[in-house]
Amino acid sequence: MDRLGRRSVAGVTEAVIGFQHGRCLICTEPLTPGTDEIAVDHVFPFSAMRRYRLTIDLDAIWNLAPAHAACNLRKSSRPPNGAELTGLARRNEAIMGSPHPLRRTLELTLGPYARRGGWRAFIRDVHQELS
Ligand SMILES: [Zn+2]
Question: How far is the CA of 70 from the centre of ligand 1 (A)?
Answer without folding.
Answer: 7
